[in-house]
Amino acid sequence: MILTGPEITSASKDGLLRISPFIPTQVNPNSYNVRLGGTLLIYTDQVLDTHRPNPTRRTEIGDDGHVLQPGELYLGHTLEEVGSDLFVPLLFGRSSVGRLGLFVEITAPIGDIGFHGQWTLMLTPTRPVRVYAGMKIGQIMFFVSEGAIDLYEGKYQAASGPQPSSYWRDLDATAVTA
After folding, report:
1. Which superfamily does CATH assign the domain made up of 5-46+55-146 to?
2. What SS3 state is found at 30?
């Protein structure tokens, strides 16, 4: 079951989900619009390595926006902090942004119950596109969970700003690679 707009508003007021800041005009019929934060991370190595941290370059989106280039992956973030200990959040790009050829979330739209923080966005343009801090970039839907809940306690908890991959932290040192 998915929460409707009025239920998102009610759950936010009741503390069952957190959206900060909560702006009533960003509530949709069954989702909440999130805005693009002001910081982007760009990986600086040509080849990204899953077994180690990858260096990034940080850039701030100025008043004139920032032009995203095809063939580049930009890690952005939501301006809002979003999370819930009860509902399962899913983040998708807004259709009007997708119609500009901008992928907002590549492979990981589902959030964990218990995560609270700014969401990292994986921005990938199909052609040059100028983005602005504060623009509506995506929408989060909330689904009702069923069964026992184990709250998220992972490495991205309380994220502030874009977070590069920490995949390497999950590697099992005893695992054999084929």
Report:
1. Deoxyuridine triphosphatase (dUTPase) (2.70.40.10)
2. coil
